[in-house]
Write a structure and sequence with these properties.
Structural class: alpha+beta
Number of helices: 3
Order of helices and strands: HEHEEEEHEEEE
Low-confidence stretches: 12-19
Strand content: 35-45%
Number of domains: 1
Shape: globular
Radius of gyration: 20 Å
Number of strands: 9
Length: 144
């Protein structure tokens, strides 16, 4: 009975260790490009946490700033997702074609989230409207 119980505990321990590839790290553990991005585009904001996640053999970093802004970086330190919640994403990281489209079609609304994907970009406006753009900045979807 003791051997069976120990075997079950060992299996549970191994399973728990294998399934948890996420860990919290220091800001200094971020790639240099990510550190530069944060200091240039979010000056004066303190980093609250940095979580290093592993998916499909690749590392990603999820950074949460003191004001609630969340920025995701790939393994090289390039941003993949910037979520400023109810504030505007820094305009300098938004491609001009996307900015122009939003200004022309949704005046007065802010881009509060932008995600860079292999197919293009996803943005969210301050009215919760989602818009998808392909790599040529053509709108491919509006709404949920």
């Amino acid at each position: 009975m003791k051997i069976m119980l120990m075997a079950i505990l060992a299996m549970l321990t191994i399973t728990a260790c294998d399934s948890d590839d996420d860990e919290f790290v220091e800001v200094t553990d971020l790639p240099a490009a990510a550190q530069t991005f944060l200091s240039q585009h979010f000056p004066g904001l303190t980093v609250k946490s940095v979580e290093k996640e592993k998916a499909s053999g690749t590392f990603y970093y999820d950074v949460t700033l003191a004001d609630g802004t969340e920025v995701e970086f790939d393994q090289a330190g390039a941003w993949t997702d910037v979520d400023c919640k109810n504030k505007a994403v820094p305009s300098v990281i938004i491609p001009q074609a996307i900015s122009a489209y939003v200004e022309a079609n949704y005046p007065g609304l802010l881009i509060v989230q932008i995600e860079r994907e292999s197919y293009g970009y996803d943005i969210e406006l301050s009215n919760d409207l989602d818009i998808r753009f392909d790599t040529l900045f053509n709108v491919t979807r509006v709404g949920d």
